[in-house]
Amino acid sequence: MKVTVFGTGYVGLVQGAVLADAGHHVLCVDVDADKVAGLQAGRMPIHEPGLEALVHRTQQLGRLDFTTDAAEGVRRSPVIFLAVGTPPDEDGSADLQYVLAVARTIATHMDGPRTVINKSTVPVGTADKVAQVLRQVLAERGADHVFDVVSNPEFLKEGAAVADCQRPDRIIVGTDSPRAEAQLRELYAPFNRNHDKIVVMDVKSAELTKYAANAMLATKISFMNEIANIAERMGADIEAVRRGIGSDPRIGYHFIYPGVGYGGSCFPKDVKALIHTAQEAGFEPTLLDAVEARNRAQREVLFSKISAHYAARGGSLAGKTVAVWGLAFKPNTDDMREAPSRNLLQALWQAGATVQAHDPVAMAEARRIFGERPDLRLVDSPMAALQGADCLAIVTEWQSFRVPDFDELAQALTDRIVFDGRNLYDPAVVARHGLTYVSIGRPVRGEPAGDWLNPV
Ligand SMILES: NC(=O)c1ccc[n+]([C@@H]2O[C@H](COP(=O)([O-])OP(=O)(O)OC[C@H]3O[C@@H](n4cnc5c(N)ncnc54)[C@H](O)[C@@H]3O)[C@@H](O)[C@H]2O)c1
Ligand SMILES: O=c1ccn([C@@H]2O[C@H](COP(=O)(O)OP(=O)(O)O[C@H]3O[C@H](CO)[C@@H](O)[C@H](O)[C@H]3O)[C@@H](O)[C@H]2O)c(=O)[nH]1
Known about the structure:
Layout: E1 2-6, H1 10-21, E2 25-29, H2 33-40, H3 51-60, E3 64-67, H4 70-76, E4 79-82, H5 97-109, E5 114-118, H6 126-141, E6 147-151, H7 161-166, E7 171-174, H8 178-187, E8 198-201, H9 203-234, H10 238-246, H11 267-280, H12 286-298, H13 301-312, E9 321-325, H14 340-350, E10 354-358, H15 363-370, E11 376-378, H16 382-386, E12 391-394, H17 406-412, E13 417-420, H18 427-432, E14 436-438, E15 445-446, E16 451-452
Parallel strand pairs: 1-2, 1-4, 2-3, 4-5, 5-6, 7-8, 9-10, 9-12, 10-11, 12-13, 13-14
Antiparallel strand pairs: 15-16
Helix pairs in contact: 1-3, 4-5, 5-6, 9-11, 9-12, 11-12
Nicotinamide-adenine-dinucleotide binds near residues 35 and 120.
Function: Catalyzes the conversion of UDP-glucose into UDP-glucuronate, one of the precursors of teichuronic acid.
InterPro entries: 6-PGluconate_DH-like_C_sf, NAD(P)-bd_dom_sf, UDP-Glc/GDP-Man, UDP-Glc/GDP-Man_DH_C, UDP-Glc/GDP-Man_DH_C_sf, UDP-Glc/GDP-Man_DH_dimer, UDP-Glc/GDP-Man_DH_N, UDPglc_DH_bac
Protein name: UDP-glucose 6-dehydrogenase
């Protein structure tokens, strides 16, 4: 099928490449001319495992193209995806300006029937708004073309976006139009061979399904972070508790890792947007309010531990150098949108510390965000970050941080202490190497080996 995708970000680019790989002919449209020129030349705007090879292959096969020409994008394909951003407005609601702008563009240039498929995460009622814009602009043109607006939310995870898109666990199709449903069934047929993954429902339920999924996952994380806070005050070990509850299939092991709070471009924004939608409808979502509040607090926990450690010893962070491992909001991506590392760095700088940081792929993004500043050194390896540092803070659980040389760590860090926001290590092993180890939801371990210290 001929398909046009508006927006070549994490969702649009991956979706476009995966559809092209499955055999469709895809044209990706973006307003960012640099991004489009880069993609035409085969340069990826984001780090996503497997994406570059997929884009190159489908480009060479002539099934994937990029353009800034929106009119061509609209005229070329009967099926048009919307995959533009829906960032949070100041009041937490989703900003629909990009979605509605594309709707106007489609209505301005369409010259026959179109199916508009919304992949952006949008509040309930947005499909109606898109349809209204289409109707209005068509009426202004005096044109009379048939269209359907379908909700088809995306569930990919960054860092695994290509794999998730190639093997979706469900394909939500929100429409009451048999014509549109048949088109989407044909479009997704290559992804639907093993068993029927397509779940058809009304548009509003599809729109809400996306928020419900993200809110449920965010709730699991905030719940676990809440239990971690209780555990560390009681002398219990959250990792033992995690294994203990995860083995119950009704709970499961997924998304119950405690840490530095959820970040990224989706959970923080989508939980806030759902709260806003509920409030607008006259309902106070107290559970979601609490999920959000716990996350806000959790994102400060690592800094609180570092600062409390030094304060308890009569010192402060002023003049200290803190090594930071991990800047991306999660491993296998260079995305730093709402990354918990940003909270930590700002707090450390405010306390007068210098940061010496390493991330396997997000260094360029960090440079773009923070610019040149005397209290930030971005270095090329995890071990280089330790040189001359007083302590280490771990923010992202990259694979390359999982098995460090603890003796080298102990030698390099002046204060011989590790603050781990991701519980990467066995506390007894770290302590055996002469390091003090402060993690999330577990008692502090330190020298001499085997000693349990008071939580800081
Ligand atoms: N990032 C994810 O993991 C993820 C997963 C599922 C759903 N979503 C949702 O998908 C949507 C897109 O997210 P993203 O992370 O891909 O965003 P992004 O910011 O990475 O990309 C959006 C792209 O849209 C382009 N754009 C803006 N206006 C345009 C226009 N009028 N015409 C053409 N292109 C235009 C921008 O230039 C940008 O390249 C959001 O609603 C998001 O919540 C994101
Ligand atoms: O047990 C866990 C799991 C995740 N996280 C954090 O939660 C955030 C989000 O992680 P993840 O869900 O893996 O990444 P995203 O790429 O943000 O993907 C989420 O958001 C997307 C955008 O809506 C959805 O499509 C995905 O299904 C949904 O998982 C990150 O900060 C993680 O560190 C935890 O703290 N503990």
